[in-house]
Design a protein that fits this description.
The chain is an alpha/beta fold. The protein is built from eleven helices and seven strands. The chain has one domain (2-46, 75-278): Rossmann fold, CATH 3.40.50. It has a seven-stranded mixed beta sheet with strand order 3-2-1-4-5-7-6. The radius of gyration is 18 Å and the shape is globular. The termini are far apart.
Amino acid sequence: MEGVGASLAMGIPARLFYVIMRIVPPKIRSRMWKGLYQRMANSQTDSDFRFMNYGFEDDDRPLLKEGDEPNRLFIQLYNMNVRDTELQGKSVLEVGSGRGGGASWIAKTMHPETLVAVDYSGKAVRLCSKWYSNQKNLTFREGNAESLPLESNTFDVVYNVESSHCYANIPAFLSEVHRVLKPGGKFCWTDLRDRKSMDSLHEQFLEAGFEIDSNSEITENVVSALDKIDRDRRKMIRDRAPASLRKSFETFGGVPGTPIYEALKSGRISYFRYRLTSSRS
């Protein structure tokens, strides 16, 4: 199925891509996304490529160290997702940590006592464990978001950034997040959905046992970031990605002109952010 995922991303029209991603069953869609992601993880070991998200642009610009400045817009998406949640001294979990750039920045900037970053790609986990080995409050673990290899009632905060659209079983994912959170723990979530799917997910949050503290649409902020990083992202892909995967990297990265970007730009897909509390007593 990896070949299907990569082939789907290789430049088919945006509208057709959007239709396919709406009508295929969730398990097949998940395997398509995961197949593409695994091929990217296996082919790209460049330590400079540590963020995979679409970025976020607004007036809240956190102070960054000089080495982090080139990744500002990607970091700002993580910052937006957790900026109203206290992390210092807390036990924190990231589900879907990718190449680890967000987990690394949060661990060194917001000073959680511990940050566990889980990703289903063993290759990505091994790379991150090597790249960030000097950060003592940060560990990476291989695991499935729908069956987390973690004990119940363990974390004060769980966050999830631009990852859950790849999951086959969202209720299972939400149940797992609720399980590993301590009572009253916070869940910070941000990702893209079409309106119908977001309405369904809103109800699934409640059914899983969460109270919704706040929610907002942030599509314009994300599209603005994609526009600003366009030139640099294209150059990075051209310089560092294998020729056979460049179109896949561009699609996965939301480069302007690719299906996901055009769906965001046209409003067929939107980007949302939720902050939730585990209501278990």
